[in-house]
Amino acid sequence: MERLQKIMAQAGIASRRKCEELILGGKVQVNGETVTALGTKADPDQDEITVSGKPIKNEKKVYVMLNKPKGVITSASDPEGRKIVSDYLKGVRERVYPIGRLDYDTEGLLLLTNDGEFANLLSHPKYHVPKTYLATVKGVPHGEGLDKLRQGIMLEDGMTSPAEVEYKDVDPDNKQAVISITIHEGRNRQVRRMFEAINHPVIRLKRISYGDLLLQNLKRGIYRHLTPDEINRLVQMAMSAKNSKPEGKRPPRRRT
Ligand code: URA
C-alpha cells in the first residue's frame, strides 16, 4: 500500500505536490469513492484509481535522452505547428515528458520520462544537478568577463550561483569563441542571459551533459534509453548535490 499522491506521481500524473492538490480538490477516486484525505493509501495493482474520471495507468517507467535539434519546441504540443520533441520519439510507446526545458534554438541533451518522481527530483531547484553547455558566443570574452560568470552574476531574477567556465575554442579573427559553461540551476534562458550580461551574446547553444550523463556521439534527432546504472547515478547525484552546492544570492525581497 502506498500513499495516493505517490502512486499518482509515479504514474506520471504530475508532481507529488500537484497530486496533493488534485486529491484535496476532490478529483481523485479510489474504487469509485472520492478521496480528499492526503494520508490515504491504496494498492496500485488492486485498486482502481481515477483522476477526473480517467483511470491512471501503471505504465512501465521509461527514461530516455534525446539529442534535441535546434528549431524544436520542448512541449507536448504547439499551436503554431512547429516541431515538438515527441516528433523524435516515435519508437517510445509511453507518454513521456521533458525534465526541464531547452529553448527552441538550443540543441543537445534533453531527458524525458514518465516517472513524475524522478522528474521532480531532477528538476527541483534545490537539488542543483550540474548541466554543461557549449556556448558559441559573439566576440571573445576577456578573462574578467568569464570570472564574473565564475563568481556569480546579477541577472534580473537575482544572482546566479557560481558557474564553471572554460575556453574551448577561439576564432583566429576574434569574431567568436566557444566556451564551456556548467551551471547548477535551471532558470529560464539562463546561459543566454549570463553571456548577454557580459556583452557576448550566444550564437549557438548545445547542452552536452546532465549530471554525469554525457551526450557523447548520440546523433542529432536520435534518442536512446538510459541504463539502470545511469538512472541510479542521476538520483544519487541529485540527492548528494542537495546539501553541497552554494545558493545564488537573490536580491532582498521588497516589502509591499
Ligand atoms: N540556458 C539557456 O539560455 N537556454 C537553454 O535552453 C538552456 C539553458
General description of the model:
It is a single chain. By secondary structure, this protein is an alpha+beta fold. The protein contains six helices and 17 strands. It starts with a strand and ends in a 12-residue tail after the last helix. The model is unreliable at 245-256 (pLDDT under 50). The protein has helices at 4-10, 16-24, 116-123, 143-151, 190-197, 228-244; strands spanning 2-3, 28-30, 33-34, 41-42, 49-51, 54-55, 63-68, 97-98, 106-113, 131-138, 154-155, 158-159, 164-170, 176-183, 202-210, 213-214, 223-225. The strands form four sheets. Strands 7, 8, 9, 10, 13, 14, 15, 16 and 17 form a nine-stranded mixed sheet that branches. It has a four-stranded antiparallel sheet with strand order 3-2-5-6. It folds into three domains: 2-55, Roll (Structural Genomics Hypothetical 15.5 Kd Protein In mrcA-pckA Intergenic Region, Chain A), CATH 3.10.290; 63-125 and 216-242, Pseudouridine synthase I, catalytic domain, N-terminal subdomain (Alpha-Beta Plaits, 2-Layer Sandwich), CATH 3.30.70.580; 131-212, Alpha-L RNA-binding motif (Alpha-Beta Plaits, 2-Layer Sandwich). It is elongated and about 70 Å long. This is Pseudouridine synthase. It comes from Paenibacillus algicola. Residues 2-61 form the RNA-binding S4 domain. Belongs to the pseudouridine synthase RsuA family. InterPro entries: PsdUridine_s_RsuA/RluB/E/F_cat, PsdUridine_synth_cat_dom_sf, PsdUridine_synth_RsuA/RluA, PsdUridine_synth_RsuA/RluB/E/F, PsdUridine_synth_RsuA/RluB_CS, RsuA_PseudoU_synthase, S4_RNA-bd, S4_RNA-bd_sf.
